[in-house]
Amino acid sequence: MFEALKERLESVFNTLKGKGKLSEEDVNAALREVRRALLEADVDYKVVKSLVDSIRGRCIGQEVLDSITPGQQVVAIVYEELVSLMGEDVVPFIISSKPPTLCMMVGLQGSGKTTSAVKIAKRIQNAHNPLVVACDLRRPAAIEQLKVLAQQSKVAFYGPSGGTQDVIKVAKEALAYAEDHLNDVIIFDTAGRLHVDEDLMEELSRLKDLVNPHEILLVVDAMTGQEAVKVATSFHEKLSLTGVVLSKLDGDARGGAALAIRATTQVPIKFAGVGEGIDAIELFDAKRMAQRIIGMGDVMGLAEKVQQVTSQEDVAKITKSLKKDKLTMEDLLLQFEQIEKLGPLDKVIDMLPGMGKMKELKNAELDPKRLKQSKAIIQSMTLEERRNPQIIKGSRRRRIAEGSGTTVQMVNQLLKQYDQMKQLWKYMGKGKKGFRLPKGLFGGGGFPF
Fold first, then answer.
1. End-to-end Cα distance, the chain
2. Do the annotations mark residue 176 as ligand-binding?
3. pLDDT in tens, 135-186
4. Is residue 192 a known part of a binding site?
5. How many C-beta atoms lie closer than 10 Å to residue 10's C-beta?
6. Helices (H), ranges, 222-267
7. Residue 110, annotated as binding a ligand
8. Is 113 annotated as a binding residue?
9. pTM for the full model?
10. 249 known ligand binder
11. Per UniProt, where does GTP bind (predicted)?
12. Is 367 annotated as a binding residue?
């Protein structure tokens, strides 16, 4: 997401940072590139004009032209204006002080409404008892999809009975069901169309009148570009939206929707879908999004990911091994499992400040298949072999290769990488710096620590 935009902006910023003093011509030339980059990212042209004019007004002021570090000042201004454009404050999901909290998920067909409904329910499950309700009765597959996702996520589900096509009847029954089962958050997955039409809006309006929801969240596919803004405007005019959920932000979308929806409709973006997994949804934070767009990374987001996948028991195991300056294959397996839970490695690297500029990393083959093969090799070892890998000789290596469905060569490579990782472990345990990850680790090219 935003990859092309990020690269273009980084190029502009690098040019500016190389100059000791900026002239008005320098600023105008840079802003032409910023404007072109935003338009290529499919941001609405009116939003682009307003944003660039605002940046120009601040950049041509004396605070930049007379600054000791003018290039850095421009970066700071662009960052602040992007944050202002997308919404400075994180806007949370509304929870009513008087249960139940009622939420309607609306949007076009294929935007990701059904998945997003379950993702939000799953996200609040620790503090609440949510119920997802199938109100998309035009598409039978939608009911089954919601039911399956709810079961996988251990979220309560309610669907139509007897083949009814009456959305209002289903909603009334769901409200009664929720009261009996103490569900304090009810999320209605509504019908969608390939485009906005009067029949859809009429059905949604009737449902809104019945349930009087606290939240009406529009789910927008981030890959639809400027069309997303038109869709958001149409739904907002008819239903008075309270928020937007941007789905598929992990894809190859150019990102124009994220930058333009709030500026055009004044409706806050509340959630961002960042993957296919049922846990892959996060509160939309304009500051963190702007940091990633201009190449500053997202350290807070990465820290949250690590916190989510790391248990206290795992932390205790790693700490104990570090104190002993001893790395076992069991420790390495644990590390592999945690890395796997973080998601695609290239996405994780994008969250690290400055890593996007490192060609060594960008060109690395971060192959998840190699990660799985490495796990399989360790899992094919006996307990004694995992704790004392030095005993793994020829016959053992052949047995492990057969058991893991790999080759002796791959077993040898992992053992070599393990030896290199042991050295890194000792350096980390002693607080030293300057060590390099072994070349080829996880199928990649290695990078400095």
1. 26
2. no
3. 988 777 889 999 999 999 999 999 988 778 889 999 999 999 999 999 999 9
4. yes
5. 16
6. 226-239, 256-265
7. yes
8. yes
9. 0.66
10. yes
11. 107-114, 189-193, 247-250
12. no
